[in-house]
Amino acid sequence: LVAGFKSKIAASEKASGVVESHTEMDDLLANVAELAAEEEERKAEKTAEKEAKERDNERADGMRDEAMKGMKKRKTKGDILPALIEHVRERDEFNREIAIRTVANEENRLALERERLELEKKERAAFIQLLGSLTTKLLVPQ
């Protein structure tokens, strides 16, 4: 149904000056197509977040390994406390950066969601206004 609807929309866009009937089925199919597109976008975002998290984890593992190598070298010298303090400081810095990025990403997501909701609200208002003007034209005797 959705594929047929998309081809109907494509054909409708190519047609010039022809007013086609719009049915409730068309509205429902448009909603289904929109939801499918949003779901694909959500999956892509989730995949990107997962890949970013994996990269961050790999980076953290690398940092941890390097810190451990440094600690082993210092341990033989009997100088473990400064290495441990530096390791904890680096870990805390890294965790802070991740928390900041997480908050920024969430703020961006919320801003985009607000924009999407505002656009939907404007679309509904325009549609209601269109219906009102059509109703007025149909009810007013000529």
From TrEMBL:
Source superkingdom: Eukaryota
Span list, region Disordered: 37-75
Composition-biased stretches (Basic and acidic residues): 40-69
UniProt-recorded name of the protein: Uncharacterized protein
Species of provenance: Phytophthora fragariae
